């Protein structure tokens, strides 16, 4: 019985840390996000942000770039004023 309690506590502690806070890579939603800075990402962060915002038919605006380890590249997803969802046959609330 004690081993079942120990297993439950261990699994619960692992589940508590899964997906909490910004992790490595990209963290964001439909309004924007952050990308962890590395020298490899420094060359392609605009493409990563554009691909993320393209999921919601939005454009990308880079808001901040801090080129040090432990810092992030911030971006926002903005609507294209010329985009009309009714003409594009995009499902969803208008």
3D architecture notes:
A hairpin with a 6-residue loop joins strand 3 (59-65) and strand 4 (72-78). By secondary structure, the protein is α+β, with helices and mostly antiparallel strands. The chain has a 4-stranded antiparallel beta sheet with strand order 1-2-4-3, with helices on one face. The chain has helices spanning 2-16, 45-54, 85-88; strands at residues 26-29, 32-36, 59-65, 72-78.
Major β-sheet annotation: 4 strands, antiparallel
| Tally of DSSP helical segments | 3
Helix percent reads 25-40%
Order of helices and strands: HEEHEEH
Give the C-alpha Rg. Answer: 19 Å
Give the strand tally.
Answer: 4
Structural class: alpha+beta
**Span between termini:** 56 Å
> Overall mean pLDDT score?
78
Shape: elongated
How much strand? 15-25%
Largest beta sheet: strand ordering: 1-2-4-3
Low-confidence stretches: 13-22
Key terms:
94 residues, alpha+beta, 4 strands, 24% strand
Brief description of this entry?
With 94 residues, this protein is of the alpha+beta class.
Question: Topology of this structure?
Answer:
Layout: H1 2-16, E1 26-29, E2 32-36, H2 45-54, E3 59-65, E4 72-78, H3 85-88
Antiparallel strand pairs: 1-2, 2-4, 3-4
